[in-house]
């Protein structure tokens, strides 16, 4: 289990799982603080402090923590399971053929194909793609914190959507285990048969120095795993799923975040394929998983009362707007 977790730490995923657990604890603390302030200060006339409210929050916290631990435990168990080589090979070939059928090319190999006239452009963007792929954990953490500060009700929905995306992906990881294009074809770690058409595109694949360094990093991490470790969570892409959740709730909290999150989302979509960690079809599958999680959360989750941090943020925002308008009026007079 620890070995599997170490693999994901190196690709910015485990930090997201730990962040989720930390967020649950922080949410419970802020819920208690809000109820305490309601009792002592301004809301006492409208809404009294209730032990039942605190117990409900604590129960909800414990329940979702339990679901979280079960989901992560099952995910790690699936990742550490060794499906048959024949099954993995069949699914990998199916995903690669799906890319070819839908997009006309074997997309993961197309970016760095020596016959691709756009290869110089992708070479120039290589550092951006790799950095984007590795920075998802940091960006998601910042969005979590921002949404919590601006709209705590949406924060509650966000971390539930995050958990639900993992739960919805578990059947795919179990019944459709697949390796990344790098592991399944370039390195062929299971020594499976590769169709002739794919052998041809592999021979034309000419990765640049930045990608080669990234691939070496992936191989180094994989070499440190105990046993014949295989990460069979390629389909659907959690990178794209979590980026979708971050985009949706981040923009809901503050529309101006779209200027950063939309480009980041597009780059994440491309980077997941460019770095040979995903097929094109499973990036779209990841987006659909996220959309399904968001729809379920919005439909069935009752609206939580706002936390104190939302009141404080709103108050600070009104104060800032007042001083900005005051300063602007003085400039006009001068």
UniProtKB/TrEMBL annotation:
GO terms for cellular component: membrane. The keyword Nucleus does not apply. The chain crosses the membrane at residues 16-37, 58-79, 124-148, 155-176, 240-267, 279-301, 307-328. InterPro entries: Aur1/Ipt1. Residues 123-295 form the Inositolphosphotransferase Aur1/Ipt1 domain. It comes from the Bacteria. Keywords: Membrane, Transmembrane, Transmembrane helix. The keyword Transmembrane applies. This is Inositolphosphotransferase Aur1/Ipt1 domain-containing protein. It comes from Candidatus Uhrbacteria bacterium RIFCSPLOWO2_01_FULL_47_25.
């Amino acid at each position: 289990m620890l070995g599997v977790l170490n693999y994901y730490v190196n690709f910015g995923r485990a930090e997201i799982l730990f962040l989720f657990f930390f967020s649950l604890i922080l949410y419970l603390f802020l819920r208690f603080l809000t109820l305490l302030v309601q009792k002592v200060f301004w809301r006492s006339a409208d809404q009294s402090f209730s032990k039942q409210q605190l117990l409900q929050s604590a129960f909800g916290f414990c329940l979702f923590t339990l679901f979280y631990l079960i989901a992560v435990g099952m995910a790690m168990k699936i990742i550490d399971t060794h499906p048959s080589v024949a099954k993995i090979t069949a699914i990998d070939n199916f995903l690669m053929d799906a890319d070819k059928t839908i997009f006309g090319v074997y997309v993961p190999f197309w970016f760095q194909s020596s016959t691709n006239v756009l290869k110089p452009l992708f070479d120039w963007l290589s550092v951006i793609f790799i950095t984007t792929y590795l920075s998802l954990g940091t960006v998601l953490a910042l969005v979590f914190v921002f949404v919590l500060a601006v709209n705590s009700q949406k924060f509650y929905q966000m971390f539930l959507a995050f958990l639900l995306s993992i739960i919805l992906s578990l059947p795919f990881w179990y019944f459709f285990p697949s390796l990344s294009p790098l592991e399944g074809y370039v390195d062929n770690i299971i020594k499976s048969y590769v169709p002739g058409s794919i052998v041809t595109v592999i021979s034309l694949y000419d990765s640049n120095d930045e990608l080669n360094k990234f691939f070496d990093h992936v191989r180094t991490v994989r070499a440190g795993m105990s046993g014949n470790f295989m990460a069979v969570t390629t389909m659907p892409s959690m990178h794209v799923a979590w980026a979708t959740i971050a985009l949706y709730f981040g923009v809901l909290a503050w529309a101006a975040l779209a200027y950063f999150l939309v480009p980041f989302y597009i780059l994440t979509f491309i980077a997941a394929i460019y770095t040979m960690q995903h097929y094109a079809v499973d990036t779209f599958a990841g987006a659909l998983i996220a959309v399904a999680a968001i729809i379920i959360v919005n439909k069935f989750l009752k609206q939580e009362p706002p936390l104190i941090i939302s009141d404080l943020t709103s108050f600070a925002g009104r104060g800032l707007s007042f001083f900005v308008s005051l300063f602007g009026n003085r400039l006009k007079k001068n």
